[in-house]
Write a sequence for this structure.
């Protein structure tokens, strides 16, 4: 069984240290390089889809989360307030949506601006119990690829369909394997969902009230507005119908403010969890008093569509590490090219090739210590997509012999042609490393 925690240690992708704290992993250089490549991809994907990126603080005043409803409906999962004075308490945010509501409210809005799409890779925090923390898949500090669209009621179905297509494209490019789609609704759940089933040790560490609520508790965790819930549920069903997505319904698994479409993934142990979501929210605009000027001059309330293309960076990489066995596609591999001189006589040629590769935009490094065979094996163990071997003949002719991590070798190529070929694979996000 592939375990992202073991591979994370072996490939030096991330590290957990007691001094940092449980559920607070540290991204090491290799993991950070892969993560940054994915972040850049997501940023550009969203920019081209009409999103405007913002930056908001990872904490806010207690009153912000009372207004949003998180304090009342989500308080068990929030960290305690930090009191700076009797009337000034700050809270680590459990969600980005309150701050994005403030983005919309920053000035008056017109119907001509809608849909207004706001995106951010932002930090949020959940007070998870220590017994359920696990590598990158369950953490306390979360870097969420989040986005919110503010739109007119008549635009909301189209926006949800649009988001489902964006999610599909991102999953294809990243190599995400979807196990299913569910429509998470208000209501009482008959049993704990599969993603919350624990081992015996986890059951003892986790207070049972979080797994087995009474019917009254199940209802109280949701905003009490049945017509709003029906309207939002109808929107999501219609979007799923239009896009032809097959799904299962999951009563009791909605967000406290509205239903959602959850795109599920499954790990090697068979445990299922949510990766990407689309949610329709009529509640936050009302709570924050959001409005826009309609074409007839009246003031109307927008609908807020929450969505995450790939969820948090932590959960995403827990899945990607296991799906790819640590051998990430070349475009987000931590090191894309290892340059291997056969002997010290080729060190200068290796340094030039590495420098040219870095200047061209590749993540490259020279590996010169040890025997050539050992260095080739080490590059394969580290899952480096390409290893460029430079011996006396290659150095004299300006060529390189490129080896793939699966053991295949490409014919010797001029150094510039080899780099162009690698760049072509990286830029196209091709899965064919032979070019």
């Amino acid at each position: 069984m592939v375990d992202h925690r073991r591979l994370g240690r072996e490939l030096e992708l991330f590290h957990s240290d007691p001094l940092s704290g449980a559920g607070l992993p540290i991204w090491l250089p290799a993991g950070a390089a892969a993560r940054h490549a994915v972040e850049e991809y997501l940023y550009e994907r969203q920019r081209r889809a009409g999103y405007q990126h913002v930056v908001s603080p990872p904490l806010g005043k207690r009153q912000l989360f009372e207004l949003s409803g998180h304090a009342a409906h989500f308080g068990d999962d929030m960290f305690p307030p930090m009191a700076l004075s009797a009337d000034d308490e700050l809270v680590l945010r459990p969600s980005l949506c309150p701050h994005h509501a403030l983005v919309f409210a920053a000035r008056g809005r017109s119907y001509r601006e809608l849909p207004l799409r706001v995106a951010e890779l932002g930090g949020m925090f959940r007070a998870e119990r220590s017994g359920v923390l696990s590598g990158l898949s369950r953490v306390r500090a979360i870097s969420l690829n989040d986005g919110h669209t503010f739109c007119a009621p008549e635009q909301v179905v189209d926006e949800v369909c649009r988001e489902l297509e964006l999610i599909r494209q991102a999953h294809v490019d990243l190599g995400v394997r979807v196990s299913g789609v569910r429509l998470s609704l208000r209501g009482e759940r008959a049993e704990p969902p599969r993603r919350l089933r624990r081992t015996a040790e986890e059951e003892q560490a986790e207070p049972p009230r979080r797994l087995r609520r009474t019917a009254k508790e199940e209802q109280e965790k949701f905003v009490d507005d049945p017509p709003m819930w029906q309207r939002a549920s109808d929107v999501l069903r219609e979007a799923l119908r239009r896009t032809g997505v097959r799904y299962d319904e999951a009563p009791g698994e909605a967000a406290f403010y509205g239903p959602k479409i959850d795109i599920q993934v499954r790990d090697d142990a068979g445990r299922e969890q949510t990766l990407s979501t689309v949610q329709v929210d009529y509640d936050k605009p009302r709570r924050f008093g959001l409005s826009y000027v309609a074409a007839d001059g009246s003031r109307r309330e927008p609908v807020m569509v929450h969505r995450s293309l790939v969820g948090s960076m932590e959960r995403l990489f827990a899945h990607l590490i296991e799906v790819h066995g640590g051998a990430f596609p070349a475009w987000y591999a931590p090191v894309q090219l290892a340059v291997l001189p056969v002997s010290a006589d080729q060190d200068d040629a290796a340094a030039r090739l590495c420098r040219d590769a870095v200047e061209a935009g590749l993540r490259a490094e020279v590996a010169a210590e040890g025997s050539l065979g050992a260095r080739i094996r080490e590059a394969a163990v580290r899952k480096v997509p390409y290893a460029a071997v430079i011996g006396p003949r290659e150095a004299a002719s300006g060529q390189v012999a490129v080896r793939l991590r699966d053991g295949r070798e490409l014919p010797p190529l001029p150094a510039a042609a080899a780099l162009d070929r690698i760049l072509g694979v990286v830029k196209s996000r091709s899965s064919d490393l032979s070019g």
